[in-house]
Design goal:
Keywords: DNA-binding, Transcription, Transcription regulation
GO molecular function: DNA binding
Number of helices: 9
Helix content: over 70%
Pfam families: TetR_N
Order of helices and strands: HHHHHHHHH
CATH superfamily: Tetracycline Repressor, domain 2
InterPro entries: Homeodomain-like_sf, HTH_TetR, Tet_transcr_reg_TetR-rel_C_sf
Mean pLDDT: 91
Number of domains: 1
Radius of gyration: 18 Å
Shape: elongated
Protein name: TetR/AcrR family transcriptional regulator
Length: about 190
């Protein structure tokens, strides 16, 4: 017998299905409630605002992304491959059924000139995780200046994610090629 989804899961799933594909600002809360099959009272019992609900959905997405990236790193055979495994994780995450058109965090950041605190915090945590993890992996791969390389790789990754808007069926291949060149240059210096 399949488990029934909680109201919270239904709401977060509706955010994934609607807001991260059609836009946060352009999707009314009523559409989220209808998709989730819950009442407004249920929504506001758990979340004080639409933005708080979106932040919770971003946090859940971040947990899923971290798990995907962890698996890709674990499957890599050497330190350079572990650093570049982020592109394997991007590929596998993109093919998931709960995947957005592109990066939900970049989408949320793009929609607000000055995002509400809960969204700004979620976006900042995701960015911090990228920087920290890339830096740690660059250090283990014996790259010179891991901080600079992490910033360079984050730029390549962000560009790769943005390309999903131009070519939804594209792959992470171009980003990985650029990142490989950056990593190898950083290891040779």
């Amino acid at each position: 017998m399949p488990m029934r989804k909680s109201s919270e899961q239904k709401l977060l799933d509706a955010v994934d299905e609607l807001l991260f594909t059609q836009g946060i600002e352009s999707t009314p809360v009523d559409a989220v409630l209808a998709r989730a099959g819950v009442s407004a009272a249920t929504l506001y019992r758990g979340y004080r605002s639409k933005e708080a609900l979106v932040a919770a959905a971003l946090e859940r997405r971040h947990e899923r992304w971290r798990d995907e990236w962890d698996q890709a790193v674990a499957a890599a055979t050497d330190d350079e491959d572990k650093l570049l495994a982020v592109f394997d994780a991007l590929e596998s995450f993109h093919t998931r059924t709960d995947s957005a058109r592109w990066c939900a965090f970049l989408g949320a950041a793009a929609e607000y000139a000055s995002p509400p605190d809960e969204l700004a915090d979620a976006i900042a945590r995701d960015t911090h995780h990228f920087r920290t993890r890339l830096r740690e992996l660059a250090e283990k791969a014996a790259c010179t200046d891991p901080d600079d390389l992490a910033e360079d790789l984050l730029l390549v990754i962000s560009g790769e994610l943005t390309m999903r808007l131009r070519d939804p069926d594209g792959s992470a291949g171009p980003g990985r090629r650029i990142a490989t060149a950056l990593v190898r240059a950083a290891r040779q210096t």
